[in-house]
Amino acid sequence: MDKGKIFLILCIVLLLSLQACTLPEQASSTPELPTAAPETPTASTLPATEEPGVQHEVFPVSAPNVQPYPDVTSEGTAPERRAPYGDSYSINRLERPFLQDMTYVSDLDISALSIAQDDLWYYVSIGLVGKNPNNPLGINYSVELDTNLDSFGDFLIVASPPYTEEWTALNVQVYQDTNNDTAGLSASKSDAPFAGDGFDALIHSPVDDLWLDPDLAWVRMGEGEYATIQFAFKKTWAGSRFLYSVMADGGPRNPSILDYVDQWTLPEAGSSVRDTGYYPLGQLFAVDNTCYQAFGFNPTGTEPKICPVIVQPEIIEVVPETPGVDACTAMGQPNPGNCPYGWSDYPFCICTPG
Questions:
Q1: What pLDDT, on the 0 to 100 scale, is given for residue 63?
Q2: Pairing of strands 201-204, 228-234
Q3: What is the spatial order of strands in the sheet that 121-128 belongs to?
């Protein structure tokens, strides 16, 4: 091979060596991908806030002291796993502060109710036998308002736990009945089975950012020998005349099926009173309610669900033993006329001396 060809080959080899030294490093042809797309914040992953973006203008204060109206309690007969009386299913009077196995829950047992007012607020207080409204059962307390005085509930103010000693508006909801079926077909009697929708419209719910009025309704609890749940709601909203009742509900907790006595027949619901023939409790348990109280007018006493007037003549201690027999009749005493349902309303109906 001549020298010229050898020189040319050497030059080519040298040139290729120089190019190899100066070529840039190639990137990977398959980039590394993330194993999942970045998470998009949702309502369930965003941190919860305790206070909605609302400013309160007025706050409730301490309610004036008033004389409470008593309710039947089951504390004395609780060891026997029964209510003494007062569970009158046919007229929507429920005394069922028991679980389905008849375990007594004192925090469900209403002992009294009362209403007071100041310039801005109505205050409805619910006295309880128990001391812990924040019972692990999860008890809702409520006030029912009948604003057109037909004994069908129009509004239901419901408070749910947790309860504190400070007034709060956050855990209060207000429901409305828009088609007048909260008491079934008749105002007080059980119409079961009745396929109504009860309090069908949720009109105020701070937890859902639904505000009819930021200052509309409040709740707090009081402590002492016995607990008290106290509601405050605006007078300008409720009006000057209404019927009202209260309820402790650790069972159905469903405003859309009130009145509960219209959803289950008595054999289905069972009874907390042994001599009714339907003991023990069945499908309706862990609930206690009261009769209707009148506010702003004088009731005739014949209104469905109305509370009997408590009279205080010379008191004769009577404990009825015979089902369906008026206590006064059983004692040979005249009935003063304020016991429309006979023995079931004792001791609120007092016999007059013979």
A1: 85
A2: unpaired
A3: 69-70, 110-117, 121-128, 228-234, 217-222
- 163-210 confidence digits (pLDDT tens): 999 999 999 999 999 999 999 999 989 999 999 999 999 999 999 999
Which pair of structure tokens corresponds to residue 137? 């059962």
CA distance 265 to 279: 13
285 vs 12, more confident:
285
3-state secondary structure of 126: strand
CA 71 to CA 96: how far, in whole Å?
12
d(CA 142, CA 41): 36
For residue 31, what are its two tokens?
Answer: 């980039």
* Amino acid of residue 264: W
DSSP one-letter string for 267-326: HHHB-SSGGGSS-SB-SS-SEEE--BEEESS---S-STTBPPPP--SS-------STTS-
Q: Which of 322, 267, 290 is nearest to 86 (CA)?
A: 290
Query: What's the CA gap between 305 and 290, in Å, rounded?
Result: 9
Per the listing, tokens 């007062």 go with 86
- For the record, the structure tokens of 191 come out as 């119409």
Question: Looking at residue 311, what is its pLDDT?
Answer: 55
> For the chain, which residues make up each domain, given as ranges?
69-307, 309-354
Give this prediction's pTM. 0.77
Residue 156 tokens read as 């239901």
